[in-house]
Amino acid sequence: MNFTALDKFLHEMTARGVPDAEIAVTKDGETVYHEVAGYTDIDRTRPATKQDIRWLFSCTKVMTCIAAMRLVEEGKLSISDPVSRYLPEYAHLKVKNEKTGEITDAKEILTVAHLFGMMGGLDYDLKAPAVRAAIEAGGGTREIVAAMAEKPLHFEPGTWFKYSLCHDVLAAVVEVVAGMPFGEYLDRIIFTPLGLTDIGFVPSEAQKARFPQMYNYDAAARKLVPMSSDNPYFLSPRYESGGAGLFSTVTAYSKFLATVANGKSPEGYSILKPETVKLISETDILTPGGRLGMISSWSTRFFGYSWGLCGRVHLSPVVSAAKSPQGEFGWDGAACSFCLMDPTNRVSLMMGLNVRSFVYGYHVLHPRVRDLLYECLEAK
Asked: What's the CA gap between 10 and 38, in Å, rounded?
């Protein structure tokens, strides 16, 4: 292994318009590369450090899916179960015809598989009247997720793909099945056993002081614009968003990824059995309609990939021309963080960024970092 090329790429991030970046790589459960570059403020007065805390945004989805698969592994949850078995509000859903505006009763049953696969017909509308009312009432995970069921679906469950609040609903299912708040369940099966600190849903004032400045990329002006570092998916102190609610250091999140990819932590703790991780790395959960919907949503970004039980899943290195093997899986976040797990080689990678609306990051930086990882693992 020789990480010179990856290190060079990381320290060139500022030249690409990225104010700060952090990358951690693990192999066989051990950290083999971890560096940070840049500054956490626009005036370049505060160098980025490994103690910086970031909102994970949609990288939260990875942990939510792993938590749900723990329950599947234990026989407490099946991906074929109707969501209404756990969340009764989802028993009588409506569907709105996108062309005519007609609202009818849903003919298909919303299942847990549809939540995993973003095929539930939901959206990311947090301003829907019922949702707003639940937020203003200080609702928790169950109350706000229940309110989401009042809005008509965009399509019959399982017939299309739409990136949405599906994993927030999945977190509520986990909460019901586990018999405890979602965050408490994560703490019980992930945070405490792995000794993770500086990770959670509600940061303390001391932790807030360690967040880097958040930026929005203005494509028209081709520049970064400072923005609030608050998480817009923090809907109430009692709401634990399974889709975008976690904050973490790269260090803490990387240990979680390493434990999944390696099968166990250095201390010997396993979150999932090897056969469950293998199932995640092999499963393309999309229906034909869902597959078409994913292509429609993201065009060429995921050729060779599909959507599985934990975000994207690599199906064909021949088609993708990617250097990661078949079975690599993971996801990214709204501020352009990126993660992958490779159980075949027991490798993981976490990249922390803090730039929103940054298409360049998803289409250029993420695949390049992925490929550099494998070049460096083979380099001498």
From this structure: 9
* φ/ψ of residue 54, rounded to 5: -125, 150
Q: Decide if 266 contacts 29 (C-beta within 8 A).
A: yes
What interhelical angle do 4-11 and 366-378 show, nearest 10? 150
**Which element (helix H / strand E) includes 104?**
strand 103-105
- For the record, the structure tokens of 114 come out as 């549809």
For the beta carbon of residue 61, count every other beta carbon within 10 angstroms. Answer: 28
Q: Where are the beta strands (DSSP E) in 274-346?
A: 305-308, 311-314, 329-332, 338-342
* Residue spans in the chain of domains classed CATH 3.40.710.10: 4-60+197-378
**pLDDT averaged over the chain?**
96
pLDDT at res. 301: 81
Residue 6 near residue 369 (C-beta atoms within 8 A):
yes
pLDDT one-digit tens code per residue, 338-376: 999 999 999 999 999 999 999 999 999 999 999 999 999
The CA distance from 367 to 251, in Å, is: 21
Fold (topology level) of 73-178 = Methane Monooxygenase Hydroxylase; Chain G, domain 1 (1.20.58)
Alpha-helical segments (H) within 195-287: 205-208, 250-262, 274-282
Residues of the chain with CATH 1.20.58: 73-178
- Can you list the positions of beta strands (E) in 191-246? 199-200, 214-218, 223-227
Q: What is the pTM assigned to this prediction?
A: 0.97
Q: Looking at residue 212, what DSSP letter applies?
A: P
Question: In this predicted model, what pLDDT tens digit does every residue of 96-119 receive, in sequence order?
Answer: 998 899 999 999 999 999 999 999
| Residue that the structure tokens 């370049």 belong to | 44
4-60+197-378 CATH: 3.40.710.10
Measured at the alpha carbon of residue 123, what is the angle toward residues 68 and 278, in degrees to the nearest 5?
Answer: 30
Q: Cα 64 to the chain's mean position, in Å?
A: 8
Give the residues across from 349 on adjacent strands: 25, 340
Joined tokens for residue 15: 């030249």
- How far, CA to CA in Å, does 221 sit from each of 4, 42, 228? 33, 16, 19
Per-residue model confidence (pLDDT) at position 247: 98
The identity of residue 235, as a single letter, is L
